[in-house]
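Reproducibility note. Readers wishing to regenerate the assembly model reported in the main text can use the exact inputs given here. Chain order matters: entities are listed in the order in which they were concatenated for prediction.
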Amino acid sequence: MFQYIADVITYDILRLSRGTNIASSMNFFLYDVPKIYFLLAVIVFVVAIIRTFLPPEKIRALLSHKHEFTGNILAACLGIFTPFCTCSAIPLFMGMLQSGVPLGVTMSFLVASPTINEVAIILLWGLFGGRVAIIYIVSGLVIAISSGFIIGRLKMERYVEDFVFNVKPINEGSVENLTLKDRILYAMEYVREIFSQVWLYVMIGVGIGAFIHGYVPVEFVTKYAGNSNPFAVIIAVILGVPLYSNAAGTIPIVQALMEKGLALGTTLAFMMAVTSLSFPEFIILRKVLKPRLLLTFFGTVAIGIIAIGYLFNLVF
Amino acid sequence: MEIKVLGPGCSNCQDMERRVKKALEELNIQANVVKVTDYAEMGKYIMATPGLVINEKVKHSGKPLPNVAQIKEWIKEENK
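Running the prediction on these inputs yields the following structure tokens for the assembly.
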């Protein structure tokens, strides 16, 4: 359906001739933008409904008194459904540590929550297809579980800022009982909020992607960032760090590059670096983590991402 | 009345502050609006930002934000 509408506008209304660069770019843009907006509206709504069943108090309760390894797995999975960027995850991170959730388990949550978020999954699914989306989710989970597990084994509790354990909550937040109507209103409000935050990035991202699709020659990317360049994955991760939280704008560009020969592993590594490692995040986390733990956290996640990148470049 | 807006200073927290000020303006009520950006202080009240605390009572935490009408209700409750 989206392809049909895009074709009608490109070839019949705008009268661009098939096979030209401009027609190819325009068609790409007109196809991708409505499709992504549609997917965003539907999936964000569903995720928001699920989220109403998982308030922070519940997540904390689910993760306390868990054995380390199963705790890591559960924490990473719960991270998929939670909206937290790192800045908003910190109060929950503190709340979990105070109630006795092991440090490694909270770390798994802290990695999974921004890395595997619904906006990234939607864009991957819409632009790359289900296979890549699932590979992305599974790799993200593996990185979150293993980096949390390693940090747990290293027993780094003393490198958490001391005040974190000393904060005494004044009143325990009471969990409200929501009706179905409340949940639907919440989800609609959430869709509206996400939309207002990302619509422009999607459009700019797809716009650049459309330009690449129509005008950049295939050999260009293959030459500089294809499988033959052994440093491609590392460069992709380094480039991804400053592009924080713009998954919505970044992913369409990456899709167009992948079409031009960027390897799958390099693509995955780049996107994970964009969503889970960033300079502003580093500064925010420094408020609750001492430098040694902060560096260990970033180091394990970065190594995990790079390893995933090389693994997929080898396999595919 | 003391109103605390809790959050590290992201766009959502700024939006929350704007909404609180608008609510106060519309109700024509004077209140002391404090921005709390320190995590140690925030952690006493909430586990998801942005948070809203009126007279030491947690009224809201997390996204999406409450609308101005809802904030007005809370302010009226506490203003009695």
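We highlight two features of this model. The mean pLDDT of chain A is 83. DSSP finds 16 helices and no strands in chain A.
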